[in-house]
Structures are given as C-alpha cells and as structure tokens.
Amino acid sequence: MSLWSEIWFLLGKEVKLEWRQRHALSGILLYVLSTVFIVFISFQQISPQLWNVLFWIIMLFASINAVVKSFVQESGNRQLYYYQLANPLAILLSKTLYNILLLLLLGGLNAAALLLVAGNPLEDPGLFVLAVVLGSIGFSVTFTFIAAIAAKTSNSSTMMTILGFPVIIPVLLVLVNLSAHSIGLLQGSMIRDDIIMLAGIDLLLLGLGLVLFPMLWRE
Amino acid sequence: MKKNWWKILGPLLVLYSFGMGLLTPLKTGISDIRPQFISAGDTVKMEVTGYNSFYKAAEGQLRAWLKLDQEHALAAQAIEVKDDRHLVLHFVLPPHLPQDADQADASLLIDSPVDGAHVYPGGIRISQKKTNVAPGSGAAWNAPIEKLHEKDAITFPFRNILGETIRNTYYHVPMWFAMFLLFIGALVHSINFLRRKDLKNDRWAAALTTTGLVFGAMGLATGAMWATYTWGEPWSGDVKQNMTAIGLLIYGAYFVLRFAIEDPERKARISAVYNIFAFSTLIPLLYVIPKLTDSLHPGAGGNIAFGSEDLDNTMRLVFYPAIIGWTLIGLWASQLLYRMNTLREKLLWGH
Predict the structure, then answer these.
(1) Domain check: are B62 and B109 in the same one?
(2) Residues of chain B numbered 183-212 and touching chain A (CB < 8 Å)
(3) Is residue B205 domain-shared with residue B316, that is, in the same domain?
(4) C-alpha angle A52/A27/A55, rounded to 5°?
(5) Closest approach of chain B CAs to the CA of A158, in angstroms?
(6) Domain containing B196: what range?
(7) Global ipTM
C-alpha cells in the first residue's frame, strides 16, 4: 500500500472508531458548550476584545482535551499490531488529519455558541474562518506530536499540558492577533506577515513531527 | 594538568572579565543638557552636566559646538566652567536655520584636551518660527570643527540611558552564548543517542541541558536587572523576553518528562526526541520571531544590532573572553553532573 492510501485508510479507521464510541466525541462537544455557557454567565457583558481572547482560550483547552486521547485510547498491543502493518508516518499523518477535522468541528461549535450568547463582533468573517482553519492545523500538528510523547509517560494528560502549553504559545499569540484583525481591533497590513509566520510555525512543527515520530513509535 | 587546563582557564577568564569589566572607567560623556528645546534667534545659556569629565583641568581650552549636520555647526561664544562636571555654554543662535523646516535636531559636541571630544547625540531641538527663509540665511552656521582631541586611555564607550550599565554586556550576553552552546552540545548527544543507543549520551544530554537551563535563568535574571535601569521595569513585555521565557519553559518540561518515565532506555529515547524538538523550537523563538516584531533589544524589530558603534574594541577584549570563560565553566559543571549521575546509576543498578 502506498503512503497515501495508508493514510486514507487509517483516517477512515479513526472516524469509524470515533463514531462507534460516540461518548468521547459528544463529551468534548459538551465540554465546549458548557465552557462557553460558564463564561457567558460569569462575564454577562463580553466586549469584542474579550470575545477574541475567550474564543482562543476555550479552543486551547478543548483542543488539548480532544487530542490527548489520540495515542492512549488504543491499547499497547494494538499499537504493536499497527506498527507491524503500517508506516509510522501514515499513522502520525492520519491522526493529525483526523484531529484537524475534529478541531475544525470544535472551532465551529465554539464560534457558533459564542456568537449566539455573546453577540457578533466579527467584521471580516472570512479572515476569522481562515484564522480558525490555520489554528486548527497548528493545534492539531503540535498537539498530536506532543500526545505521542505524552502517551509514553505514566501520567499522559498532565504531561500533555506541561509539554504542550509552552510550545503552543507562539501559535496562540499569532492566532489572537490574526483574529483581532478580523474583529477590527487591530488595523494595518500585518495580516500577511501573521499568516506567513503561522504557516511557517505549522510547517516547522509538522516537519519536526515527521522526522522524530518514527523514533518515538518504535518500542 | 595537561587534560584539565580548560578547567583553570574558564574561571580565570571569568575573573578577568569581572575585574576588567568592572574596573575600567567609561569614556567622558554628557549626561544632561538643559534647556533641550531652543529657538533660532535666541541667546541661550545651556547648562551641561558631564560624566567622568575633568572640566576644571581643561579650563580655557574647552571648545563646544552645536552641530546640525556635517556642514553646519555653531561654536559656543563663551564657556564657563563651574566645576569638573558642570559647564555653562553661551550660544547666540542665528535668526534662521540653514534648513527650510520648522525645526531641526542638533548634537552638542565638546572638545577638551584632558577628556577628548565627547558628544550628546541628537538631543537638542531647535525650532524656528519663520519657514520659507531666503537662501544663504544659514551662513552663520559655519563654524569649523577641527583639531579634536582623543583621549589615550582604556575606556568603555559612554552611551546615554545605558551609562554604567553597559558593563552588563559582559555578564548578560555571555549567559545566552553559554546556554546556546551547551544546548547545542546536548542536541548532539541526543542525536547520537538515537543513533547508537548508548546511555552515556543520554546522561551527557541531561547534564548539558541542566547547566544550559541554569545559564538561561541567569541570563533572564541579569536581563531583568538591566531592564530595570534602562527600560524602567524588570519585565517590560519585550518580545524577546517573552519568547525566552517560553523557550525556557519548553526546556523545563524536558526534566518533568524525564521524571515521568521509569524505564531508563525508554526515558533516554523519549527525552532525546523531545530534546531535539525543544532545540528546534528554540531557534524560531529566539532568533526569528523577535526580528519580525517590535522589540526593545538591539538587533531586533528594526533596532540597530549591537555592532561596531556599541561594541568597540576595548569591549571585545572583555566580551569574548567572558563568553569562552562562562562556556568552559558550564562544560565543567556539566561534566561534574554527568559523573555524579553515572555514579548514582552505578549505586542503583550495580553496573
């Protein structure tokens, strides 16, 4: 099997697995909804600036919770089985792709819920959607690789936060900046620089993941 | 002795950088001028505060100019010396500036046979009411600046705002160099571990990363001290400060990761992978992002780099030995850590 068909097949497996255990998916979706609701109840009035920051903070915590199970939900024996069948790159890429889809869903839900309860501050929805897409890719690329490391430790969800947060800060800073442009909080022609920087960080992290994952995978 | 010469060299170089870096005086400079806002056509009494200056000794031989650009300067009419550090300069400003503009920035240049020539760069604003001046009205700005004195002494440059804190160049900057070199060493050992699976490489990588992190923390601390006196507060939200803090957090997680894995081989492999990952994220954090955004640091965000102007040859004489010295001390400390951990493993596992 070529790498692409392997990735495609494994992606299908991830989706099927998620669909069979719907409690995980519905759990994380409920997590987003209830966080938005808690935030709304605590703040009552949400200014555009706060809207922007809250969106990304909720997104950050929801993503870390959604991605952490990538490598721990399947048992060690089954991982060994995959290792004999599939290329490690296909495994990493299929999980990353699956997490991108999952985070896009989370981002959409998060935005919809915030728009519903806190009003619509968006001036350039296209740019905001672009920020969410780039953000989902960045979060997914980073956290999937970090989840692979954290899965090797005894306390993977704590390790996920400790390892993941410092690495994600630069991505998060650019994202907050980019979506602040879409809300009209920032003016100027820095948008292109932000997008290039974000794409650059995403590519760097993806490249690192691809190079290092095969060494991590092997037991 | 033949094998351990570098352990003596390191502390010696650091001691040298302490002695030379703290004892060498700064060049004569001008720390304050008032008034700084003057108008064309006025007669101005300008009070000047010198730094490390000996004006009494040079009384009668002092000269001073207000310098607009390479061709236009105005000499002081009279110079009163109050004491070694205070002068009063009398300028009679011509009614017009040579430029056809509302205002111009001038530098003050003082020449003394005792202290040498020193300058207050660009801090004096001269305004003129009438624009649209006739050509040739700047003819009075024609004082020649010539026969300037040079002082023959070993000194460090004087920079306004920086003042004496310029010496921190020898303590703050070498911390980063040492940290970076130690991290590179750790990176090489991590890569070698993944290639050869020798636990020695892992112990070296851990020891070098530990020392590197200590140097990083000291770099952050010396930087915060420096920032208190030059930028106003220890944490100014400068992008390089923030990114460095993130970088150190990423490296800090390396140790948490090591604690979280029991099996030595697995611990070594995972932490080697993470170490390569951490180093690769450090480069964009410290050297790419700060260059793209606004920063207070030199060499970032469009600021001039710490180049020939700020780092003169006398400073290089202290700066480079300090880098070498601190790096050698870092290597020594890492070696001790490595040996300690090797012995501990031996006690634990008996081999």
Answers:
(1) yes
(2) 194
(3) yes
(4) 0
(5) 10
(6) 163-349
(7) 0.88
Q: Is residue B7 part of a domain?
A: no
Distance CA A200, CA A179 (A): 18
Candidates B303, B278, B283; CA nearest to B293 is: B303
Question: Which amino acid is present at B246?
Answer: I
For residue A166, the chain B residues in CB contact (below 8 A) are 246-247, 249-250, 252-253
Q: Which residues contact B31 (CB under 8 A, 6 or more apart)?
A: B49, B50, B51, B160, B163
Which residue reads 């170089």 in tokens? B13
Distance from CA of A208 to the nearest CA of B (A): 7
Residues B176 and B290 in one domain: yes
Same domain for B91 and B225: no
* Alpha carbons B109 and B147: distance in angstroms, whole number: 13
Q: Residue B94's domain is classified under what CATH number?
A: 2.60.40.10
| DSSP-H helix ranges across B284-312 | 289-292
- Name the domain boundary from B127, B150, B181: B127
How far apart are the CA of B199 and the nearest CA of chain A, in angstroms?
16
CB of B226 closer than 8 Å to CB of B163:
no
The length of chain B is 351
Q: How many residues does this entry show for chain A?
A: 219
Could A163 and B257 be called an inter-chain contact, meaning their C-beta atoms sit closer than 8 Å? yes
Contact A149 B257 (CB under 8 A): yes
Sign of CA dihedral B123, B124, B127, B133: negative
Is B284 within 8 Å of A205 when comparing Cβ atoms? no
Interface probe with A: pick from B192, B267, B281, most Cβ of A within 10 Å: B281
Same domain, B241 and B107: no
B336: left (phi over 0), alpha (psi -120 to 50) or beta: alpha
- Look at A170 and B284 and tell me if their CB atoms are within 8 Å: yes
- Is residue A169 a contact partner of residue B246, using CB atoms and an 8 Å limit? yes
Given B127, B147, B180, the domain boundary residue is: B127
- The count of domains in chain B is 2
Cα separation, A124 vs A156, in Å, equals 39
Over its length of 351 residues, how does chain B's per-residue pLDDT go in tens digits?
778 899 999 999 999 999 998 998 888 888 888 888 888 888 889 999 988 889 888 888 888 888 888 888 888 888 889 888 999 999 888 888 887 778 888 888 888 888 888 888 877 888 887 666 666 666 777 777 878 888 777 888 888 778 888 889 899 999 999 999 999 999 999 999 999 999 999 999 999 999 999 999 999 999 999 999 888 888 888 888 889 999 999 999 999 999 888 888 889 999 999 999 999 998 888 877 777 676 777 755 444 445 545 567 888 889 999 999 999 999 999 999 999 999 998 898 775
Structure tokens at A121: 């501050």
